[in-house]
Amino acid sequence: MTQALQVVLAKRPVGDVTDDCFRAETVTLPALTDGQILIRQRFLSLDPYMRPRMTELRSYTPPFELDKPLTGGSVGEVVESRNERFAKGDIVMGLLNWATHTVHDGKGLRKIDPSIAPLSAHLGILGMPSFTAWYGMKHICKPKAGETAFVSAATGAVGQVAGQLAKLAGARVVGCAGDEDKCVWAVREAGYDACFNHRTERDYGAVLDKLCPQGIDSDFENVGGRIFHAVFARLNNFGRVAFCGAISEYQDKEPMAGPPKMFTIVQRRLTIQGFIVSDHVALMGDFVNEVGGLLKAGKLKSRETVVDGLAKAPQAFMGLLKGQNFGKLVVKIDG
Amino acid sequence: MTQALQVVLAKRPVGDVTDDCFRAETVTLPALTDGQILIRQRFLSLDPYMRPRMTELRSYTPPFELDKPLTGGSVGEVVESRNERFAKGDIVMGLLNWATHTVHDGKGLRKIDPSIAPLSAHLGILGMPSFTAWYGMKHICKPKAGETAFVSAATGAVGQVAGQLAKLAGARVVGCAGDEDKCVWAVREAGYDACFNHRTERDYGAVLDKLCPQGIDSDFENVGGRIFHAVFARLNNFGRVAFCGAISEYQDKEPMAGPPKMFTIVQRRLTIQGFIVSDHVALMGDFVNEVGGLLKAGKLKSRETVVDGLAKAPQAFMGLLKGQNFGKLVVKIDG
Fold it and tell me: Domains of chain A, with CATH numbers?
């Protein structure tokens, strides 16, 4: 009989997520039935998209259920198997509970080779956030030499890859991030041409005018809100927006209005496209070839924040929504 | 020496266009120089996009110049030619002055065959508005059977064609228009499944919920503002918006905010694409084949309002911006 620690959704947040939205529980997992495996989890990914799942009724993923464990991308080890696809000792990745252990039917799980990279990388630079960045850049933003590409949340799990891919494509790349250290890293390590601190800059329009004197040709949008409004107003003719997230708006009690002058979309022939990477799993092979190749060649940097222990996941997640992490945020789980 | 009546931009409007934005002038045209032709105009097209040109500094077309004639799509007859491409008697179409006569270098003018259709049709169902509708439907909205397509300004020069093309593609087609007669025409003649009066309906959300019970898969947007906000909130997953115009916003002194909850774009994987048909002239041949074929087969209806005399153009244009025309608005010119 395995005892598991898990974190369940205790109540739906209104506005900011608070401690009492979560409850840690120790449960005794049932014995496996045919087809099931028991996974001892090693790393859990925390991602901004989880915030809408805590409340949204009509979203791309069904909302988390009250009094059930939250779920997230996770890497773990198979410690018991009654499923012929998986053997004890296999390392797997997939959507698992916020828990030390998950009993799973194996559907949607993928075996990974732990010799390729540290396990947590499969949740970041080799995983969903990186795939998201690649898809949005490759298929929507399509930056090229002579253009200016903007990336909000420039050093986040997705943004850090998006910015580097735009730079590799030859564009001038400008971003914003939530503190000075992140801005310094973006420029020195990730190769951004410029990165401004959206907490200390008051006039986003003025700073964008300065850093993007030729306007903005593509926007990889992770933040939404006032930053998006300022970028939108500076998009050039035939500008593209890969709309990936709007973290600045997730905790608003009242939905924020969109940017004024939607007619700009017509005047400048803009394309604004929302996307969710899980719609594009058929392209995973292309992503692995391309981004895997860049990684091997040492052409991509990555940065992560590792939080130790599942019990700290709620606090870390609340911090993520306020931008307190640096790079990809993962929780190390000692199950 | 030809005397021409012309209408010049006397001042840039702020908010509603007023009489004093225009000035009618009689001028003596200069003698032709080599390469020039003199066109006696027969019909002038009045279109909503002219309103932004009266003020906008950064628009897709340069703004009209103060104290110079406004311009617009026009059909006329060559009455004198010093250009070998054109002979006296040719009927031509292109961007000409709001005038009884224009002296032109011939660039961008197209000869038309007056036996195909009434001359005014080349400004409507056979011309730019229809090409606009075709491009937006064919290349952005892509309606199909089982889907719901929405068209704002359902009976306007563009909307009436857009709606019929969506219906021919098999979609349920819902529109809105500014009076009862237009709504009746939309349903009885143009084949809309439903059309509501946006002047008498107060709750656009409620009427859309009723008329589009399966949500909205594509939106051909001509109006913007509150109607667009209500449509946006009801777009289905993978919904498409062909953003063609925003007539409801053109006369706002303060720009209207965009729809709240831009994150909807991500959640539902929306694509919002602005377009201007003049970017796509390479597709004109496809348009003529397809829409010309439908017209010959009697599968497209059209409706126009003809205003008699250039002197009435300003008043007619102000009416257009308030939706007082029915279908394509043209001015008959007796030069």
Answer: 3-124+303-332 (3.90.180.10), 128-278 (3.40.50.720)
